[in-house]
From TrEMBL:
<protein>
    <recommendedName>
        <fullName>RING-type E3 ubiquitin transferase</fullName>
        <ecNumber>2.3.2.27</ecNumber>
    </recommendedName>
</protein>
<dbReference type="GO" id="GO:0061630">
    <property type="term" value="F:ubiquitin protein ligase activity"/>
</dbReference>
<dbReference type="GO" id="GO:0031519">
    <property type="term" value="C:PcG protein complex"/>
</dbReference>
<dbReference type="InterPro" id="IPR043540">
    <property type="entry name" value="RING1/RING2"/>
</dbReference>
<feature type="domain" description="RAWUL">
    <location>
        <begin position="35"/>
        <end position="120"/>
    </location>
</feature>
<dbReference type="GO" id="GO:0003682">
    <property type="term" value="F:chromatin binding"/>
</dbReference>
<keyword id="KW-0808">Transferase</keyword>
<dbReference type="InterPro" id="IPR032443">
    <property type="entry name" value="RAWUL"/>
</dbReference>
<dbReference type="GO" id="GO:0000151">
    <property type="term" value="C:ubiquitin ligase complex"/>
</dbReference>
<keyword id="KW-0833">Ubl conjugation pathway</keyword>
<dbReference type="Pfam" id="PF16207">
    <property type="entry name" value="RAWUL"/>
</dbReference>
Length: 123
């Protein structure tokens, strides 16, 4: 019975609730809203960075009246945003793109509340 439960969880997958906040180093956060997301734990940081880039691109296009699309950000890669997590000591650690949310949860976030991640556009 226990084996069947583990297999079901692996197939169905676990989900994690995320709270994306603008990185504290950002001086102007008016264009960086807090985002709430529920996603599978096997998602990579690269997936989340690409999601943020796509959202920024869509919202940028919706907020501009120019038809040229010059404000559209590149969504081809995930290099547009860096994502960090707070350690127990309060330091922010930038996460590599090939890290899964399950790894972040196990290594950095050991509390029973939504995972808090910080994002900022890369320079």
């Amino acid at each position: 019975m226990e084996r069947r439960k583990k297999e079901t969880n692996r197939i169905r997958g676990e989900e994690v609730e995320l709270v994306f906040r603008p990185h504290p180093a950002q001086t102007d956060t008016s264009h960086l809203p807090v985002r709430y997301l529920k996603t599978p734990t096997h998602a990579w940081i690269d997936h989340l960075a690409k999601y943020l880039a796509i959202r920024a691109s869509l919202e940028g296009n919706a907020n501009t009246s120019s038809a040229s699309g010059s404000s559209q950000k590149s969504v081809e890669g995930s290099a547009d945003f860096s994502i960090s997590v707070a350690t127990q000591g309060g330091q922010l650690v930038e996460l590599p793109g090939n890290t899964t949310l399950e790894q972040v949860n196990e290594n950095h976030w050991k509390v029973a509340k939504p995972l808090e991640l910080f994002y900022q556009p890369k320079q």
